[in-house]
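Researcher: Next entry in the queue.
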Amino acid sequence: MAKSALVTGITGQDGSYLAELLLEKGYEVHGVVRRSSSMNRGRIDHLQHGNPSHPEGSRFVLHYGDMTDSGGLNRLVKSVKPDEIYNLAAQSHVGISFDQPEYTGDTDGLGTTRLLEAVRTTGLPTRFYQASTSEMFGLSAPPQSETTPFHPRSPYAAAKVYAHWMTVNYREAHGLFACSGILFNHESPRRGENFVTRKVTRGIAQILAGKAENLRLGNLDSKRDWGHARDYVEAMWLMLQQDEADDYVIATGETRSVSDFVQAAFKIAGLEWQKYVVSDEAYMRPADVHELRGDASKAAAKLGWKPRTSFDELVHEMLEHDLQLEGLDTTKHLKRLPASA
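Model: Structure for this entry, 341 residues:
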């Protein structure tokens, strides 16, 4: 019998890549979506039942649910009886969390507790994955590993620290097979347009299309460890295939500044970034994290995981996608990467 997985946040970047991976592995995938007046399922439309090019749609089922509704989550877990749960749902934008701290805490922090409690009370041998984040480390010096102290610098990071420790608590106190993946920044063409990497590639596409004259950004000095979401969801799956539950840092081990990302993207597009990029105080955060760089040696040793996509490949793929959205000829506007990239 095929395994079943319940994925919260399935309409997001990570959820869509994870759904593809699980379907490729023969899973029956159940996704949780919130009811809204505007459908926000563009990342998973190609997986829906009825698409003749994707017969796996018959193993792909969507359910209405919300991380703030404990009763609904309980009913969903009892109904689906999943072998695995991947909790990816979150208000995941750091900047927005300063404007919506209570909602962020309710969804990201308490929402995780509600789902863990649903697993505990059903008594099912369900394996649980919690999406933790490198933002939890905050001001802790790099490289950050599983033993690095947390020092959250935003409501988002603080909520995720709570969810992380609740996952540990349910593992230790109740015997749940519950893992947390502390994922460092991971991007893709499916990244939300309000995240800085997507702002950059989308902005370049609009400049080339004649729709924008400049690109307004916040702190260009922030340093991050950027990987590809497609690589990182594989690590999520690997964590739940182990004999024992544990927590893992998932990262490339390389750090680059926002300025480095900007320069790389503009170079691939054949543009001089200084002519277009404007630093705007409106995009500065009340409290920022200067540098994040992960030590994923534990994941390499125990999971056999390592990133496959290089930084330049990631930037090129995102640019290619956004230029295509603008109807631009990518062969005309983008430089080809060296074969070794």
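Model: Residues 101-122 form the longest helix (22 residues).
Researcher: Noted, moving on.
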